[in-house]
């Protein structure tokens, strides 16, 4: 045994392809080589051979966790972006509706087919009307804010204008249609990417399925190298400085290309088998039918903004309700109460639908993760949901968008109301026109693009106590948007009512107190 003192070596690694680096890290479990030695001996071909053997044949999917890939995804609709980021293991950033004017973004127009000219024209008119309302609301609210809030001497004019414009955008975003183009960047591991691509390829919307294909293609194709142009210029300078002969210059160029300018493919092996998920597609169809049959067109009952739904005491009942929840527009409580009246056999048949089409490599559907902790049934505007959606340490089930739950208003404590600004009638007319346009296209799935972010949507969030505290504290701070501040406050109140002794652990900001609108 060696008596040499142990010295831990720590170093960052740069320049290796994601799949090669994943292979090198995976070798720690199968080889005594150091990382440096492993990377020196590995080629992309050997990495592909290794991954084909251990990842696909033996199911070592954790290897894909080691390959992280950065993507830029530009000019996709807000509807597609919400679907794209619906991963628990996801890191990224999207364009902010608070700090950017989305009038410049444009919008997504679906393909209505060779005979769809009239539909395209009607769709375009509806989108243009919402953007015109967005423009009027933004301009009108900015003017109202400047009249209501004097600029303090401590704040220069540009900073004052930027701050109030951001507040005005917070209001105007309620009229942005889901067709609005946005852009985002994501950094995900290859396992998440594979699941993400498969989920996108299984979606009802053409745009989302096409996005899945583009992600898969981007992972298998040459990546954009930010250093490529600089390195090419450097090679040219070196060649000129050395006054290379015509025979020597190509040799140097070839070596440089191999070393510095070669094209990198981020994850061609790890995503090549990503395909539409038949488990998800078949389950969606059957569970949608089961929910419609169970509820038999009974009216959707009124529900609070946040409903803390305690466990039923029967895991099977909670699972059955969770399986149907994403495929209807009823509250979780109304759905669960209806299922509670079924026989045990009928309830178990619903659960069986959720697992019937599961393939060999499919994880159980997300709904099967429910059954413990705090379950919040939340009804809020889509714009605010996009902010809440970013919380990954919980289980989220989302229902499809529909105007049947109505729309939220952007009024907030301490801020001029739409009525006070003379903007309320215009706002309501914009929402009414959007609803009429949606109804004229429904049940075509593309009707969803015509709904504005003011539309209320229903989602189920399940989390442990620590996450409930974290979200309530973070999202109630005065700098936040009032939409999610109100939801965070209602979450806290719901826990306080159900568990009074736990309320003391929330460091909560009372959202009913007007805030200083010049503080961000």
What tags apply to this protein structure?
520 residues; alpha+beta; Alpha-Beta Plaits; 4-stranded antiparallel sheet; 3-stranded antiparallel sheet; 19 helices
Please specify the SSE layout and strand pairing:
Layout: H1 18-26, H2 35-41, H3 44-57, E1 68-77, H4 78-84, E2 92-94, H5 117-148, H6 157-172, E3 181-189, H7 190-201, H8 206-220, H9 228-242, H10 248-261, H11 278-295, E4 306-308, H12 315-324, H13 332-340, H14 344-355, E5 374-381, H15 382-388, E6 395-398, H16 418-421, H17 424-441, E7 456-463, H18 465-475, H19 482-498
Helix pairs in contact: 1-3, 5-6, 5-17, 7-8, 9-10, 11-14, 12-13, 12-14, 18-19
Determine the fraction of residues in helical runs and give it as a percent range: 40-55%
User: SSE order, as H and E?
Assistant: HHHEHEHHEHHHHHEHHHEHEHHEHH
Portion in strands: 5-15%
Give the strand order of the largest sheet, numbering strands 1, 2, ... along the chain: 4-5-7-6
Structure description:
- The protein is α+β, with helices and mostly antiparallel strands and 520 residues long.
- Helices cover 48% and strands 9% of the residues.
- The protein has 19 helices and seven strands.
- The radius of gyration is 27 Å and the shape is globular.
Give a brief outline of the structure.
The chain is of the alpha+beta class and about 525 residues long.
């Amino acid at each position: 045994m060696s008596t040499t003192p142990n010295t831990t070596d720590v170093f960052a690694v740069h320049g290796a392809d994601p799949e090669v680096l994943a292979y090198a890290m995976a070798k720690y479990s199968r080889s005594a080589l150091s990382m440096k030695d492993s990377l020196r001996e590995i080629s992309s071909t050997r990495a592909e051979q290794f991954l084909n053997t251990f990842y696909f044949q033996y199911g070592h999917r954790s290897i894909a966790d080691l390959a992280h890939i950065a993507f830029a995804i530009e000019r996709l609709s807000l509807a597609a972006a919400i679907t794209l980021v619906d991963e628990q293991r996801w890191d990224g950033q999207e364009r902010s509706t608070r700090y950017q004017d989305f009038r410049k973004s444009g919008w997504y127009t679906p393909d209505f087919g060779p005979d769809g000219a009239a539909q395209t024209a009607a769709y375009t008119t509806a989108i243009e009307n919402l953007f015109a309302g967005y423009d009027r609301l933004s301009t009108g609210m900015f003017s109202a804010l400047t009249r209501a809030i004097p600029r303090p001497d401590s704040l220069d004019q540009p900073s004052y204008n930027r701050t109030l414009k951001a507040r005005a955008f917070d209001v105007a975003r309620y009229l942005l249609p889901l067709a609005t183009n946005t852009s985002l960047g994501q950094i995900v591991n290859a396992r998440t990417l594979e699941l993400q691509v498969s989920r996108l390829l299984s979606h009802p919307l053409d745009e989302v399925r096409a996005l899945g294909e583009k992600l898969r293609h981007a992972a298998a194709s040459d990546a954009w190298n930010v250093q490529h142009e600089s390195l090419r210029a450097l090679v040219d300078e070196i060649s000129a400085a050395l006054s290379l002969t015509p025979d020597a210059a190509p040799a140097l160029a070839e070596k440089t290309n191999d070393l510095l300018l070669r094209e990198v493919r981020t994850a061609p092996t790890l995503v090549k088998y990503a395909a539409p998920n038949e488990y998800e597609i078949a389950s969606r169809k059957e569970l949608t039918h089961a929910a419609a049959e169970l509820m038999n067109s009974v009216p959707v009952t009124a529900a609070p903004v946040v409903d803390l739904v305690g466990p039923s005491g029967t895991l099977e009942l909670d699972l059955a309700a969770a399986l149907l929840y994403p495929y209807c527009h009823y509250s979780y409580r109304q759905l669960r109460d209806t299922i509670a009246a079924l026989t045990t056999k009928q309830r178990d048949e619903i659960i069986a639908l959720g697992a019937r089409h599961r393939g060999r490599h499919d994880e159980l559907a997300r709904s099967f993760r429910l059954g413990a902790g705090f379950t919040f049934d939340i009804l809020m505007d889509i714009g605010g949901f996009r902010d809440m959606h970013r919380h990954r340490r919980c289980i989220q089930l989302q229902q499809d968008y529909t105007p049947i739950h109505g729309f939220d208003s952007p009024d907030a404590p301490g801020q001029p109301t739409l009525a006070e600004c003379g903007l309320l009638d215009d706002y309501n007319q914009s929402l009414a026109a959007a609803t009429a346009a949606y109804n004229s296209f429904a049940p075509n799935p593309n009707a969803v693009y015509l709904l504005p972010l003011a539309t209320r949507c229903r989602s189920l969030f399940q989390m442990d106590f620590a996450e409930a505290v974290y979200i309530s504290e973070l999202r109630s701070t005065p700098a936040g948007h009032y939409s999610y501040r109100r939801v965070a406050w209602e979450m806290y109140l719901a826990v306080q009512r159900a568990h009074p002794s736990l309320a003391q652990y929330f460091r909560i900001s009372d959202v009913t107190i007007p805030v200083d609108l010049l503080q961000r």
